[in-house]
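Box 4.2: Ligand-aware structure prediction
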Amino acid sequence: MQTRTLPGRRLAGVEVRIDLSVLVLVALVGWAFTGIFRADHELVVALTMAAVGAVLVVLTTLAHELGHAVEARYRGMEVEGITLLLFGGVTEMHVEGQSARDELAVAAVGPWISLVCAAGFGLLATFAGDLLPAVLAGPVGQVAGVLGWWNLILAAFNLVPGAPLDGGRVLRALLWMLTGDRLRALRISVRAGQVLGVTLIVLGVTVLVRGGPRATLVAAAFALSGIFLIRAAATELRHAELNAVLEGRRVIDLLALPPAPLAADQRVGELDRDRVTRGGDLHTVHRDTDLVGVVERDALLGEGSAARWPPEALLSELAEPLDDVPAVELTDDLHTLIDAFQGAHNVVRIVRDGRTVGALTEREIARAIARLRRDGTR
Ligand SMILES: [Zn+2]
């Protein structure tokens, strides 16, 4: 995720990053809380209570996300980290190989922790008068009361059954258990998430029409949450469909139609231009059976290539050597292949038994994956 975050810290073995938009959340929540507390307290007291309340909102959100992360790690999944955002938190994890039961447990634990927080703050609010001296009982009880409601609403909202909310994941896991079809379960939960997003936008417009300009902020909050949900649902579906395509496939499956290699001692002027055009973006250049490098089609036929490469130039002079290009084995899985592109490279070498047998560009891989997708997922 490309966001501006404060430097990360590790908590319970999980990397926690705080997006700068959390400052907006703290400001908004602090402002709203000040309004609530101002009715019964002096400004300084109300501001202090609001500040404590806003920090507790962030901390309870963190507890919710840590619940997901710790449960996921306990179940053997790899957790990348937690990012706290304006709209709550995101726990990034690798879900390959997880079962429906794992998914259910990881999704449900977040709202469960929010409910526990709600109950804890509710108890504190109820019994603050018996537990604390009179001076503190009022403010502590009130802050605890607001936090109790906040966490209850957070748990309830998160349990709404639409992806990417926790409720959507719970729904997906249950449908997966029932139907045995993971991708179908996900599509239904994503559809539910999109319906929920549209509902939120309609609610926002209704609030604006009914309440007039004074309701602008609430209306905007509804509409923005709706847009956020629709977009996140679509992203989730794209990721899952990609994963379904990649699952169980290897690099060799993408090399179904490797372009015929070009000979190193061939001259640019003798090239069969049609053949080069029909081939891929990237042509391998061989001397006998050894791969000496790659040459991109655009470098051979693109604009300006005639001026750059005289007809008598040898392909071995044009070919870019592959020494510092990342390599993957023919038998590696496709996740490894995609990870190999992290960094500045847009080419990877394909290796068999230590010998380079070919190369693929990012664009070729994207096209090959699109082809796999069209041919149907397993
Ligand atoms: Zn959650």
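In the box above, the bound molecule is zinc ion. The chain has two domains: 5-246, 251-374.
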